[in-house]
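FOLDING PROBLEM:
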Amino acid sequence: METKEEELFLCQLFGQDCRFVKFLNNTGRPVKLSSELKMVNNSNMRWTSSVTILPFSSYTWRFLGESSDSVVSCLLPDPYTIAFTNQYRWNVCYMDTDDTEPIFIGHKLKSIELQELKEIPPNGSRIVPLHTSSKEPASLKNLVLDYITRNKSCTEYEKLEIPDALKSKLTNLYSDYEELRTIIPTCPRCQEIHEL
């Protein structure tokens, strides 16, 4: 009799008492959310990771629980207890490197510390909105430029009859949005993106 081997998913290694922080992108434009874990007793030890969040989408940041496999937890990022007792920060910026409008992450400008959120209980979560300082939607100009860049090839928009300054802006934006063209499949178990 053959035994069917169960498929192992990365998300199964996080333990049963994970914590979650859900970031909601209300800016109207693609943003990059980055984290940095810096050990208090050893400032040379730092881990960083980042994710792109599309407009009006969300991303759930998952922290390892205490019940996760201790061997695996040194390979996977962000154990909650270690992150909470050290310096853990998220930074947010537009993927469009020319956009200078400030972004709020929760109630803070550009960055927030994990410790600024209430301590998250096992299997608990927090929601953190990302929004512009004015809480207004992105400008029509930026929305149109985003649409063209995300839905047309470089050669297609070069043929548009528009001023050279706009073509230059589209070229820069096309470069800034390069990673949006890389589709990373979601996990069939939890529908999240896992990267090693």
User: Anything to note?
Assistant: The mean pLDDT is 81. The chain has five helices and nine strands. The longest helix spans residues 164-176.
